[in-house]
Design goal:
247 residues; alpha+beta; Alpha-Beta Plaits; 5-stranded antiparallel β-sheet; 3-stranded mixed β-sheet; 11 strands; globular; binds flavin-adenine dinucleotide
């Protein structure tokens, strides 16, 4: 991209738009839930088994194996809250799921990443009073539950939509209307995703910890139905209070 941009804009004028994938700060997002993705790598028991991804579900969460090549696979699992010992929890989930038999051992190390669906409260701000416009793209704008497998696609969609906003504004369309459209499209995708999560997780999990996640999703959707969309900075969805981790 840098090559294609060439020397860039050397006019010294402030940029008309800033497009960023890293908006920073937790408060800028409305988040539905507090679940974590545990992730690590492990060797496959049968290294030639490189063409099959496996997904299973335990009471505590889902577990997924993705072949990475060279006899290794990515091990991912979702738990309904913070994890103090990600590697230990991942090993427990693997054992409970039955997927452990496909691995020579569980991952030696693992990370626990925030993974609850979230949306930026103000992903598009039009230029005003000599200040450039702002467009937030990628997971910084809209994060979807990893089970969807659509994180990269969503990131690309927001980038394509942001480029269309910049082009249309340069062609004379109202920047405010374009920004409102951008935010609306993101909110629609977010709410559609929350509805899917609610349907899947409510059918899969019955523990108290998962009920909290499911309730947080339901609350976010109810607020949307009542007109208090989670992307709106004036009426935002609060993150549920922190509770003890699932060990
Ligand atoms: C373990 C794991 C497995 C996943 N599996 C899948 C999958 O199977 N399918 C799928 O679709 N998605 C998957 N995802 C999600 C996917 O990776 C993300 O949705 C996607 O990468 C988001 O793209 P992005 O450009 O918004 O953010 P990123 O890919 O995080 O890129 C943002 C970049 O900005 C850089 N940056 C941050 N701050 C600054 C700054 N101040 N200045 C300059 N640069 C900065 C960061 O270093 C980073 O390189 C997975 C994620 C994880 C963690």
């Amino acid at each position: 991209m840098r090559e294609r941009l060439g020397a860039g804009d050397l006019s010294g004028e402030p940029a008309a738009w800033t497009v960023t994938a890293a908006p920073g700060g937790r408060a800028v997002h409305a988040q539905a839930g507090r679940r974590r993705l545990l992730t690590g790598t492990a060797p496959l028991r049968r290294p030639r088994e490189q063409d099959t991804a496996r997904l299973d579900c335990t009471g505590l969460g889902w577990v997924h194996l993705t072949p990475l090549g060279r006899g290794n696979c990515l091990v991912q699992a979702m738990v309904p809250g913070p994890a103090e010992d990600p590697a230990g929890l991942l090993a427990r989930l693997l054992a409970e799921s039955g997927l452990a038999s496909g691995l020579r051992r569980a991952p030696r190390t693992a990370a626990a990443l925030e993974a609850a669906p979230r949306i930026h409260r103000a992903p598009a701000v039009p230029p005003a009073a000599g200040r450039g416009g702002l467009l937030v793209v990628g997971a910084g704008a809209l994060r979807q539950d990893p089970l969807s497998g659509t994180g990269t696609a969503q990131a690309l969609r927001t980038a394509i939509l942001a480029a269309a906003v910049v082009d249309a504004a340069a062609a004379g369309t109202s920047a405010s209307a374009l920004c409102a459209h951008y935010a609306h499209r993101l909110r629609a995708a977010h709410l559609d995703h929350l509805a899917t999560c609610l349907r899947l997780y409510a059918a899969a999990f019955g523990s108290a910890a998962w009920r909290d996640e499911i309730d947080a999703t339901r609350r976010a959707l109810r607020r949307a139905a009542a007109g208090t969309l989670p992307g709106r900075s004036d009426r935002a969805v609060a993150e549920p209070p922190q509770e003890p981790p699932p060990r």
